[in-house]
Design goal:
By secondary structure, this protein is of the alpha/beta class. It is built from 12 helices and 19 strands.
Length: 444
């Protein structure tokens, strides 16, 4: 089957049911027969059904489905409670033909029934997972599943009500396009890539076709943002639409966020406004290397502070009075923007490490710098079972080469965090390390 035929999925299972003569007894019987383990327990099946006899059904008689092991003509298969309810005339036990249709079966069951299994155990399994960005489900199908791609997409949308559009990626993110966007084909629904989603209590809106977004990195976004403290200055060099910058602004961090992609920049500006973090997050659209130098120099000279006021309960009946009370309040504290960034974030796994030479001599006018860098890197994954130490060593060696200063896994405050697989045989890491004084203060 390459075009979905929903009528194909029909199945009838012989079982039994408790015919409940008085509709007022349905709730009580269901509770008691569930407790006695006579009732059919299946989250995908509604256990209360109309009576199979049409005349009884028209008068409101209902049945409660029982386990197939409960046989209508064999009272030894009944629990004592079922026998008591039958004996006092509350119910009768009858045969029942349970009919299942397409709505019952799961995505996995339908695709397994329609797509031929792999010829060898080493071949790819039938695709089960997908990435979700708002209403768009994103697949990355292997070539052997291309003949079934529209069937897969249709079933996926049927079984996931939040999905309106299903797409399939056609090239590699980060290699075909400098902005990490990708070519795609629409397999189901409209070609509408304007999405809205929530992450870390923030709302993000963007055109998924024109910017980079990976929903599967939500845990990593949160992990890194949890390192930032209120009042710190954070420089997000490759900010995208703001998955690090906007939540950090919510935490009252002063964030300078930049992205080279004009579409990402426009969405970043909108997301800063939507999430009301304008006082904390500023945005730029320029080359990342130039931004590193520009941001470090300008932060030394720009003064900025934010007054923090106590929360005022909003009154719908008198909103103006609430505003008036707010204007008369004194700030409980004032956050002053620091002169030096506490954290640099460089989320461009394919090439972020090549931006490190821009940090050489970056703080030569100063005497001290508390800066920590968080650099994302994609490494070719070693064969299964190989220790993570190999990747850690390779990343530290490349950081050392770019900075002209030795960094090792044993250097204090160095952490190489294993994030996740981002592609077949490719693993994503986050290298966090303190910018060495010998690098930061190096004279030209």
């Amino acid at each position: 089957m390459k075009v979905l035929d929903r009528n194909f999925f029909q199945k009838t299972i012989p079982t039994s049911a408790a015919r409940i003569f008085n509709p007022k007894d349905i709730s009580r019987c269901r509770k008691e027969l569930t407790s006695s383990r006579d009732a059919l327990l299946n989250n995908r099946v509604d256990p209360v059904r109309p009576d199979p006899e049409q005349e009884r059904a028209q008068t409101g008689v209902k049945c409660l489905l029982l386990r197939p092991e409960v046989l209508p003509n064999d009272r030894t298969t009944w629990s004592p409670r079922l026998r008591d309810l039958e004996q006092d005339g509350t119910l009768g036990v009858i045969p029942y033909q349970l009919h299942l249709d397409y709505d019952y079966f799961t995505y996995s069951e339908i695709t397994s029934a329609t797509i031929p299994p792999p010829e060898q155990k080493s071949d790819d399994e039938i695709p089960q997972g997908f990435a979700l960005a708002g209403h768009v489900a994103h697949l990355n199908l292997r070539e052997r599943y291309w003949p079934y791609k529209h069937l897969i997409a249709t079933v996926l949308a049927d079984k996931n009500p939040m999905v309106k559009t299903v797409i399939n990626k056609l090239d590699n993110v980060g290699t075909e396009n400098a902005f990490r966007t990708f070519q795609y084909e629409v397999l189901h629904g409209e070609d509408n890539m304007n999405v809205e989603l929530r992450e870390q209590g923030c709302t993000f809106k963007f055109d998924f076709a024109k910017v980079y977004w990976n929903t599967r990195l939500h845990t990593e976004h949160e992990r890194l943002c949890n390192m930032f403290q209120e009042g710190q200055a954070v420089c997000d060099v490759m900010a995208g639409v703001g998955p690090f910058a906007v939540p950090s602004g919510k935490k009252k961090c002063f964030v300078w966020a930049n992205d080279l992609n004009p579409e990402s920049y426009n969405s970043l500006v909108d997301n800063i406004r939507i999430n009301k973090v304008v006082d904390y997050v500023k945005s730029w659209n320029m080359d990342g290397g130039d931004f590193i130098k520009k941001a470090a120099a300008e932060l030394l000279t720009i003064e900025h502070h934010v007054d923090i006021f106590p929360k005022v309960k909003f009154s719908r009946s008198a909103p103006q009075s609430s505003d008036a009370r707010r204007r008369n309040l004194q700030p409980i504290k004032t956050l002053v923007q620091p002169r030096v960034f506490s954290h640099y974030v460089m989320n461009l796994p394919a090439s972020a490490i090549t931006f490190l030479p821009n940090f050489i001599g970056l703080y030569s006018p100063l005497e001290s710098s508390p800066t920590t860098g968080h650099l994302y890197r994609s490494n070719q994954r070693h064969r299964r079972g190989t220790r993570i130490a190999n990747e850690t060593k390779e990343i530290c060696e490349e950081i050392s080469r770019q900075l002209g200063h030795e960094i090792t896994p044993d250097t204090p405050e160095v952490q190489i965090y294993d994030v996740r697989d981002v592609a077949p045989k490719k693993r994503m890491f986050c290298a966090s390390f303190r910018l060495p004084e010998e690098v930061a203060f190096r004279k030209a």
